[in-house]
Description:
Order of helices and strands: EEHHEEEEH
Helix content: 25-40%
Amino acid sequence: MAASTQPFDELRDGVVASDHLLEERWPQRAHPVDNLRDAWVRGERLEIADERVPVHDEARYDAWTEAVIFRRSDDLVTCYSVREEHVTNEHGEAVREAVREQVWRSGGDE
């Protein structure tokens, strides 16, 4: 069954955010005033080929919210915070490792 989705502020590429992301994941992982659309647009693309991370087509790290947002097809499906206090499982550990390798080691802030 496909994830339920909502219109996502008219991104040029037609991406929408799933209810799961908007109602459950994003509010827990970002500050309430952080805008998911803005985080996706300004996010830096990550390559994550770790079997601990759910299947996805694209992942982007947003330094402002310290979150990685995942897209599958035209849906933003989930996100993981890389803040130490939010990394609570192997999925989060894999995501944090990818950010450490690809962003923080290349000059981004940790």
